[in-house]
TrEMBL record:
UniProt superkingdom: Bacteria
EC number from the UniProt entry: 3.6.1.27
Keywords: Antibiotic resistance, Cell membrane, Cell shape, Cell wall biogenesis/degradation, Hydrolase, Membrane, Peptidoglycan synthesis, Transmembrane, Transmembrane helix
Gene (name only): uppP1
Subcellular location: Cell membrane
Miscellaneous: Bacitracin is thought to be involved in the inhibition of peptidoglycan synthesis by sequestering undecaprenyl diphosphate, thereby reducing the pool of lipid carrier available.
Membrane spanning stretches: 45-63, 89-109, 115-137, 189-210, 222-240, 252-269
Source taxonomy: Bacteria, Bacillati, Bacillota, Bacilli, Bacillales
Topology with respect to the bilayer: Multi-pass membrane protein
Pfam family, one: BacA
Catalytic activity: di-trans,octa-cis-undecaprenyl diphosphate + H2O = di-trans,octa-cis-undecaprenyl phosphate + phosphate + H(+)
Protein name: Undecaprenyl-diphosphatase
Function: Catalyzes the dephosphorylation of undecaprenyl diphosphate (UPP). Confers resistance to bacitracin.
Family note: Belongs to the UppP family.
Amino acid sequence: MEETWLWLKYLILGIVQGVTEPIPVSSSGHVIIAQRLLGTEQTGLTFEILTNTASLLAIMFIFRHDIWRLISNTWNYLRTRRAEYKSDFMFAVYVVVGTIPTVIIGLLLKDWIEAVFSSIKTVGIALFVTGIALWLIRNLRGRKQDGDLTMKDALFVGFAQAVALIPGISRSGATIVAAMGTGMKQDTALRYSFMLYIPASLGAIVLSLSDVMEASGETGMGLPYTLAFIATLITTYFSMKWLMGIMAKGNLKYFAYYCFVAGIVLLIVL
């Protein structure tokens, strides 16, 4: 019975990670909440990397055509310098530039941020802040498309992604809010947000591999981790598709409502 409950807990945690990773409500904050409710305070670094990898794979699959176009057209531009490839080349450059703040701040402060800001109360406050940010940009309808981005835009959105290292601050929420705040159209903001997610997530996974190898001696966790991975993979895919539909309709305000309610409940109840 105890073993079955362990499997179920990790299945639930995988679902929570997958559902909340793409949408602007903070996956890290919700996993912390789920851990508290399930009595699993620390799931371990192996769990974190596995579920992050599952989310990454699902998102890369959804954006596979964009990824391939950016890679091939960047190569074509470097090889030929033809103007028709320049827009995708510059977009790729801005993805690299936007990733730099997260890399620097993550390497220097990630452990400290997680130690200081991982309490339930802090998560509640951060969710409320996320809600305010989403509410402020709910009616924005920018005009900038992929070819209109600037270095300033890339750095601004990149620093917003770095702020989302704080549990409870949604990564997708922070980057989409920042991108729309610079005047990007919703589809461009969404695409740029998740193009930024890919190298940041890949880097975090690579940097953590040695720690995962050290922790790989955990016994009896193979099936729970597998269940969490599969659950995260599947739910991330459908959650991302859901977000794309919501962004197309301009209904981000509903995520703001959710963050307000969730933040208040955490501050009062937990």
